């Protein structure tokens, strides 16, 4: 529905004077920033219809995963970020939450790839100051933790924005760490996501979080064991990113627990939204610190992601393709992916379609281009390694080849006549004499071949009688 309305119309809704249109425009732009489509991607339609019924229910319907075909650049080109930042001052809590999430979706794409232009636009529109103020002074814990999470996404991969956030006198990691012990489980999960956003691929920020007290592994255990797949998926990703600053558990253990849980979700979940989120987190971890991609490949994640390329949901297919593009840079992952793509070339076409903005391994692409499918395939789908039997014409004896040359002179004469238009008497005589010599040689070779066969047969019979007599002598000696 948001795609049918269009980016420009939604921006006009945000810039209007109606609070209801503000909420519709914010939710619509947030949906387009993710592009949720397919059977599991109808979230934007459900949100748009629910706005007319109860604006307080929007906060529980927002999607939690990103898609492969987001319209972040189109929204930025249409100047849709500035009016969104102004709505952070609205009095409606539902509208403020919707705007905060929309700004987060506009700042980061699949695989935690930052959109630097949108991040700079939010910062230049005083969005950082407003978000810090909401994180510190808001009466709602949900608004506080959502603001902290969005600040982490705006600062992800952007040193200028990160410096601006830390230079704000009211910002401190202590406020986010306190939210890890809140009574609301959703607030605790979002606080972990905020810390993971700040700590992602930044050793300096991880050190600062540890200096302010760090986070304990037991804070994540209830979510890792939860029946809620969304909580398990988020907690698994968080413990891998924050593994270095978790003091009460070994880094290798916490990383292994998170990676194994994410891969189990890929294998067992039937919810397309959860599958897309898990694939997004796998893509994030596939280009983080060394050792994590190898661990992901070792637990058979390539197979499950390749199976998800055939999912009906476009969001699941796109996120899986992007995750595989990052894993293709791992040597073991490249070999496994080559094996699957060679058996099913359609998977390669799906990955190329969804990875236009990301990058596949050049080594993987080169080896895939030089691959030629086998000519014969067995019933089980694997190529046949048994060579076919050559035709009978190729099994003629060497001595019989001379028989085929007996008709050579006429053909050569006809070819010469066609080429020159005339033939001389000397040339015909020389060809005929050469042909007669060849025919005599072929008859002699055929006679020698037949005599050779006779001699061999005679010799064989003599050898056989000699062998029988020798065997009889050996038997007599044994009996004596």
From TrEMBL:
In terms of superkingdom, the source organism counts as Eukaryota
The record, for InterPro entries, names:
ANKAR, ARM-like, ARM-type_fold, Armadillo
Q: Where is the composition biased (Basic residues)?
A: 434-443
> What's the name of the protein?
Armadillo repeat-containing domain-containing protein
Q: Where is this region: Disordered?
A: 369-392, 408-452
């Amino acid at each position: 529905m948001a795609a049918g309305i269009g980016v420009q119309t939604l921006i006009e809704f945000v810039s209007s004077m109606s609070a209801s249109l503000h909420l519709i425009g914010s939710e619509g732009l947030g949906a387009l920033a993710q592009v949720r489509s397919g059977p599991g991607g109808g979230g934007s339609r459900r949100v748009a219809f629910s706005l007319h019924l109860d604006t307080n229910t929007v906060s529980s319907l927002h999607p939690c995963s990103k898609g492969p075909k987001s319209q972040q650049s189109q929204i930025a080109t249409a100047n849709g970020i500035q009016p969104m930042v102004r709505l952070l001052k609205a009095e409606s809590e539902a509208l403020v939450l919707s705007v905060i999430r929309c700004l987060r979706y506009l700042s980061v794409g699949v695989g935690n790839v930052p959109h630097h232009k949108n991040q700079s636009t939010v910062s230049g529109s005083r969005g950082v100051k407003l978000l810090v103020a909401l994180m510190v002074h808001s009466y709602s814990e949900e608004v506080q933790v959502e603001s902290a999470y969005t600040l982490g996404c705006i600062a992800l991969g952007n040193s200028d924005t990160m410096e601006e956030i830390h230079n704000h006198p009211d910002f401190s990691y202590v406020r986010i760490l306190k939210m890890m012990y809140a009574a609301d489980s959703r607030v605790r999960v979002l606080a972990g996501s905020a810390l993971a956003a700040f700590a992602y691929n930044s050793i300096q920020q991880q050190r600062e979080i540890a200096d302010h007290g760090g986070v304990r592994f037991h804070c994540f255990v209830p979510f890792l064991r939860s029946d809620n797949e969304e909580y398990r998926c988020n907690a698994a990703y968080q413990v891998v990113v924050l593994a270095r600053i978790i003091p009460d558990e070994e880094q290798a253990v916490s990383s292994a627990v998170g990676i194994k849980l994410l891969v189990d979700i890929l294998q067992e979940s039937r919810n397309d939204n959860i599958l897309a989120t898990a694939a997004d987190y796998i893509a994030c971890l596939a280009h983080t610190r060394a050792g994590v991609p190898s661990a992901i490949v070792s637990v058979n994640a390539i197979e499950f992601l390749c199976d998800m390329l055939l999912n009906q949901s476009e969001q699941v297919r796109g996120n899986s393709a992007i995750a595989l593009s990052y894993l293709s840079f791992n040597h073991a992952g490249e070999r496994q992916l080559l094996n699957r793509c060679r058996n099913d070339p359609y998977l390669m076409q799906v990955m190329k379609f969804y990875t236009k903005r990301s990058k596949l391994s050049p080594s993987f692409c080169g080896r895939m281009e030089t691959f030629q499918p086998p000519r014969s395939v067995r019933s089980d789908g694997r190529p046949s390694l048994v060579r076919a039997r050559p035709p009978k014409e190729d099994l003629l004896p060497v001595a019989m080849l001379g028989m085929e040359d007996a008709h050579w002179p006429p053909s050569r004469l006809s070819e010469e006549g066609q080429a020159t238009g005339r033939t001389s008497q000397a040339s015909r005589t020389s060809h005929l004499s050469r042909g007669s010599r060849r025919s005599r040689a072929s008859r002699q070779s055929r006679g020698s071949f037949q005599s050779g066969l006779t001699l061999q047969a005679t010799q064989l019979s003599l050898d056989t009688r000699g062998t029988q007599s020798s065997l009889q002598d050996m038997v007599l000696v044994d009996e004596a």
